[in-house]
Amino acid sequence: MAKVKPKKHLGQHFLKDTAIARKIVEALQPPANCQQVLEIGPGMGVLTTYLLQNESLKLTVVDVDKESTSYLASHLPELAQHILTKDFLATDWLAYFNHTPFAVIGNFPYNISSQIFFKVLEMRMYVPQVVGMVQKEVAQRIASPSGNKTYGILSVLLQAYYDIEYLFTVKPGVFNPPPKVDSAVIRLRRNQTQQLGCNEVLFVKVVKQGFQNRRKTLRNALKRLALPAELQKHSLLDKRAEQLAVADFVRLTNLMEEGWKK
Q1: Residue 125 to residue 247: CA distance in whole angstroms
Q2: Separation between Cα atoms, residue 23 and residue 47, nearest integer Å
Q3: How far apart (Å, rounded) are the C-alpha atoms in residues 231 and 11?
Q4: CB distance 137 to 150 below 8 Å
Q5: How far apart are CA 136 and CA 33, in angstroms?
Q6: Pair 203, 250: CB distance under 8 Å
Q7: Domains of the chain (ranges plus CATH)?
Q8: Quick one: 249 exposed, middle or buried, by C-beta within 10 A (0-12, 13-18, 19+)?
Q9: CB-based contacts of 10: which residues, under 8 Å, 6+ apart?
Q10: Number of H helices, E strands in the chain
């Protein structure tokens, strides 16, 4: 593939190291019932080339940048019908894939990496696996266990439905242009959780509200949610949000809803 100096868009830095590209693609191991793969932000196609070598996968790529998709369409004609110039965040992927499973992979643009994962959460019943390269601190946050300062909203919400693996760190020199920070590759595998066993809408509110005031105890951080009177002295509320695992947030959500019903 010819060397091209691509434009940087949406905070994306294009990978130029083929050994790392191969390693990222090899990390994608979707279950047998998932042949569809969506690559986000293919750029000049360094990951795409290796993905195409796996003939068992049905690959679709999406990039908001027309320069990138035009380049790929001309250099990978066998993929041309599956190269989309679209905004990943604004597209109905469940409809596109006819509500069948699809895996997600990509060198995710830094500026929208968190939004990509929130959208994956919305589609979690159809996305069994994600392999993504993101800014190192984002990867650490997603993979962080409770009790860590890096543990946050995205950590809890993703870990509720996915098993997270921090695979490896990637240095700036393998990108064009080089970013000012390290990157990292993570893998998300869908766990067995179909339902959390609580009001999931309230669960999200509790998690978000708790971390918006992460230095406060949950007793103070959750005041805006009108805590039930009998819950005010519960030991869970003596903790800060970062000290609660997913199961603790589920328990707290149920305690709150039960208290409101009394």
Answers
A1: 20
A2: 10
A3: 44
A4: yes
A5: 31
A6: yes
A7: 14-190 (3.40.50.150), 200-261 (1.10.8.100)
A8: buried
A9: 41, 64, 109, 110, 111, 112
A10: 10, 9
pLDDT at 179: 87
pLDDT band at 261 (very low <50, low <70, confident <90, very high): confident
Q: What's residue 153's pLDDT?
A: 97
The pTM (predicted TM-score) of the whole model is: 0.92
Report d(CA 98, CA 168) in Å as an integer.
Answer: 33
Contact 41, 13 (CB under 8 A): no
Closest CA to 2 of 45, 60, 64: 45
Interatomic CA distance for residues 154 and 143, integer angstroms? 9
Query: What's the CA gap between 131 and 27, in Å, rounded?
Result: 7
Tokens of 259: 């208290």
